[in-house]
Amino acid sequence: MNNAWLSILPPIITIAIAIWSKKVLPSLLAGLLVGSYLLNPSLIGGIETAIDNILKILTNKDSLQVLLFLYLFSGLITLIRRAGGIKAFSNWIGTYVQSKNGVFYTLWALIPLTFIDCGFRIIGAGSIIGSLAQKNKIAKTRLAFMLNNTASPVIELVPIATTFVGFNIANIGQGLKAAGVLEEQSAYSVLLHAIPFEFFSIVVLLITFLSIFYQWKKPSEEKQDQHIHSEHSGGMKMDMNMENDKPEISPRIMNLIIPMLTVIFFSIFFFWYFGKDKSGVTGISSIIAATDPNKAMLVALVISILITGMIYFFQKYPIQKITTDMISGGNDLMNILAILVAAWALGAVSQELHLSEFIQQQVGSSLPAWSIPVSLFALSSVVTYFIGAGWAAASLIMPFAITMAVTAGSGIPICVAAVITGGTFGDVTSPVAGMTNMASNIAKTDHTKYLQYATPYNFTALGIAAVLFLIFGYIGS
Description:
Elements lengths: L8 H13 L2 H16 L3 H16 L2 H22 L2 H9 L6 H10 L1 H4 L3 H18 L4 H9 L3 H6 L5 H17 L7 H8 L4 H12 L43 H20 L10 H6 L3 H21 L5 H13 L2 H19 L2 H8 L8 H17 L2 H19 L3 H18 L4 H9 L4 H30 L1
């Protein structure tokens, strides 16, 4: 196609507008409309094509499963909060923690109960240990840093029962389809193989843990009344005052523990259940890798919500209020769901404009295979840093990232990891990221001071990760 170069205009326009405006959804819609106009060059035709591509996403089974899972998951988190589970656990753990290091150990020990979502991790763990941190005179900037750096980097590395899993599988599936290799390997299998290459998350977690014992930079003293109220630009939006909500029922630890363990147990079970009948698959790891992950996680979540709802109902949480709070919690996520739909539609339009062919023509002969992973890592890191939305950046970059990997002969898993973990760098470092704003808010610290404290740690991890992508990209080429 002689005009294949036009296929890069929609993503470039989207990224440029997002960096300039810091508004992700309008930027995606602008790119989608430009791409749709190029496919159908008239005002009405462009709008019609954009709507058609959005409708294709909304009627696709896999896409709907991901969107419904995220919506219901946000609703479940709201129920846990309104049932007083976090408040009860906070009161209980406070009787045992008596030192600064004890507070940090508790924060890390809470990962098994809070790993299922980055927003829930920050706000849930922050609500539990906030008063403990204050009692033990832990600097608020340090608390925000520890909360944020044990959220997205941890959840990114967990291959089951998290909001990241369904989202990443959907993006990888779009990329495999764009590269024409969807039939050769499953998106979930690619995600599993990508985890060991998610270097930034691995390195930043190690650095963050070591900072408990040795700080490169001492946090400045802060006043008790310093707060920051910033707009969330693309992370998982959740109620920032959840720890101050009056519970609907008597707070009990079981109201936190049971829903979390139920989601984890049923997710593992249905990953096995939906994969065990696949032909030629033996062994638990192979069965899980061959399963239908979106279906497994959605079924597990629905059953978990039913069980949780019954437990809360017998504690006098009215069924009408349960339903209302579920819907309210799901609606909190509508912005990110709209971002995903627009990003996926934009990716589809770019492929209709022959983006894959353009990449094959231009990249296949110009970039060596070893440079692809580190280049994608740099691109994902930069884009997410400026737009503050790792989810949106991954949705935008993943389709042509996998095409680049296939064209240049680079490994697909390491390229997928480069996009995912580059987005995580932006999520924990960008001044406009939803996660950084959420962490500073829940820790009640000045946002700028928190970022000044976190920057040396996160950029050190960025540099180490870039070197590792260069090394492993060269080894695998």
